[in-house]
Design a protein that fits this description.
There is one protein chain. Helix 1 crosses helix 5 (189-201). It is globular, with a radius of gyration of 20 Å. The protein starts with a strand and ends with a helix. By secondary structure, the chain is α/β, with parallel strands linked by helices. 35% of the residues lie in helices and 18% in strands. A 7-stranded parallel beta sheet has the order 3-2-1-4-5-7-11, with helices on both faces.
Amino acid sequence: MGRIVIAGCGYVGTALGSLLARDGHEVFGLRRDPSGLPPEIQPIAADLTHRESALLLPESLDFAVYSVAPDGGSPEQYRAAFLDGLELFLRTLRDQGEKPRRVLFTSSTGVYSQARGEWIDESSPAKPARATGETLLMAERLLGASGFDATVVRFGGIYGPGRTRLIQQVANGEARIDSEPHYTNRIHRDDAAGILRQLLSVPAPEQLAELYLGVDCEPTDEAEVLRFIAAELSQDPPPLRGPDDAPARRRAGSKRCRNDRVLETGYAFRFPSFREGYPEIVRAFLRARTAR
């Protein structure tokens, strides 16, 4: 069994850490306030967004996972989390003489600017349309130049327990369906953690690819997802956006991402699409609403 540190042990990282601990690994979770980590993950308190922070990592690490989330959506917050934090983390690994067999980095499909429903895979050009996507791409390059054997996983929109924004919009009658398809790519939190676990479990990590797309098996027009959620709520589907409705918020490009490379690793999705993933989240939402 191995010793694994997860930097940014939050929504996905905590789920991953629990899986790895169940497998018998010794898992360390690094975050600002680690007091909420489950007992099977050993806590490390550190703020990676401060480049000059003192950071002490466990010794004899077999693997490292960098899976942070920014404090917000501004370019400055992305730079602090993904560039400043990653630079500090990598520098600390080098300074401490650590030689992990692999470093995993969680990025985003937001590095792609395709917006006409194009199919995307790992060979597709990444030309971000936003500064935040450019920051992610810069972080990927920083890792690639670090000298560590590394793998990047570009995740789609992560949903799961406790993430009820779309459900809330449908339940409140705020959701609107656009007349033109807007393809979205998502992945359940448990599958995001499961993919990372799968990559860490490969017997010969040097055979891993440098890049994987972490999305489920069905990129879907958002309108279809909204109609499905409405049906789970026993409500009428959201109406089409009319001329008097607020314009659609600025969203990431409409594209369809393939997960063939992840499937080739042997990973089996728990939630191959939103149809399997959303029902329990909706039921939990309804239970919580009834309990108020």
